[in-house]
Specification:
Elements lengths: L6 E9 L6 H11 L2 E5 L18 H6 L2 E2 L12 H17 L3 E5 L3 H9 L12 H14 L1 H11 L1 H6 L5 H14 L12 E10 L3 H18 L1 H10 L17 H5 L4 H26 L3 E3 L7 H14 L3
Parallel strand pairs: 1-4, 1-5, 2-3, 2-4, 5-6
Helix pairs in contact: 3-4, 5-6, 5-8, 6-8, 9-12
Length: 316
């Protein structure tokens, strides 16, 4: 054995339901911390679907480089495996430019696959949710230091490289040992990459969130969402992957002449509210998130900035 080599890319991830200010926060943080933005949204990859997927505008993309936007035609598939592969490539390239990768998105399954399913040490160590849950509960009951101490007993080399409060990475190191029987530190002899992520979650009061979602839908309609949906429908959208997205599928009945536009818009609002609730449930149960409410208190941005600064000082 030549000795363990740890290579962890620092990555900020901004998550949360639609209409809570993820794009605005990403632009602020990207300019402050010399970052480039990677879309973590499964729909923004499609060309021609700009309004319904709430892509960053051309002006916003001039301010900060954006990646994984407009990389597929609407008749092409884009899977979670595609996302993980493409996102890993972008993270590596952005980091090598001495910039900070910043992932923004609401597709929880895609983001979790990237953060928890990263290929470690040449072994395809897939996530074990049971083990992860067990040690997440352990950390909640006994504290982060006790969790770190457990890792130190089974793999002191790994513990020496991971900060006490980086619960996700500590649990990942324990998980690799539990699944494979081999130390996490030993698996880095081949210089494989890992992600050291700070996950920032945005949310606000439910009634405020739902009001903002409805306003967002009305704004999208004013900007031309119906024309976008009509184009997608004419291109065979009913049978295409992006045609199943919220904001499009609800308008297809109107375009076919079987439903009113008022009902179609109401369906978009209802489905968007339900999706926001599912997103929040996913992020709370599946990911280690630090939550902030920038809608109710704009001063929270200072807390976000402080959290980023503190995290950047930690060794990866």
């Amino acid at each position: 054995m030549k000795g363990a080599v740890f290579l962890a890319y620092k990555v900020i991830v901004i998550v949360g339901p639609t209409a809570v200010g993820k794009t605005s926060l990403s632009l602020v943080l990207a300019q402050k911390f010399n970052a480039e933005i990677i879309s973590g949204d499964s729909m923004q990859v499609y060309r021609g679907l700009d309004i319904g997927t709430a892509k960053a505008t051309a002006e916003e993309r001039k301010l900060v480089p954006h990646h994984l936007i407009d990389i597929r035609e609407i008749n092409q598939h884009f899977t979670v495996a595609d996302f993980v592969q493409d996102a890993r490539k972008q993270i590596k390239e952005i980091s090598e430019r001495n910039k900070l990768p910043l992932i923004v998105g609401g597709t929880g399954f895609y983001l979790q696959a990237l953060l928890d399913g990263y290929n470690l040490g040449g072994n395809d160590v897939r996530g074990n949710q049971g083990i992860r849950n067990k040690f997440q509960d352990f950390a909640l009951e006994n504290g982060n230091e006790a969790l770190w101490s457990y890792l130190n007993k089974i793999d002191s080399a790994a513990a020496a490289q991971i900060p006490v409060n980086n619960v996700r990475r500590i649990i990942r190191a324990i998980e690799v040992y539990e699944v494979t029987g081999h130390k996490f530190s030993e698996q880095f002899d081949q210089r494989d990459e890992e992600i050291d992520a700070l996950v920032i979650g945005l949310n606000t009061k439910r009634n405020v969130l739902y009001e903002r979602i409805e306003q967002r839908v009305d704004q999208m309609m004013q900007e031309g969402l119906l024309d976008e949906a009509r184009w997608l429908f004419q291109e065979g959208g009913i049978n295409l992957q992006p045609g199943k997205g919220i904001g499009y599928k609800e308008l297809f009945p109107f375009i076919e002449g079987t439903e009113s536009l008022v009902n179609g818009v109401a369906e978009i609002k209802k489905n968007s509210r339900h999706y926001a609730k599912r997103q929040l449930t996913w992020f709370r149960n599946k990911m280690n998130v630090r939550w902030f409410d920038l809608v109710s208190d704009e001063a929270e941005i200072e807390k976000v900035t402080s959290a980023v600064l503190l995290w950047l000082k930690e060794k990866g």
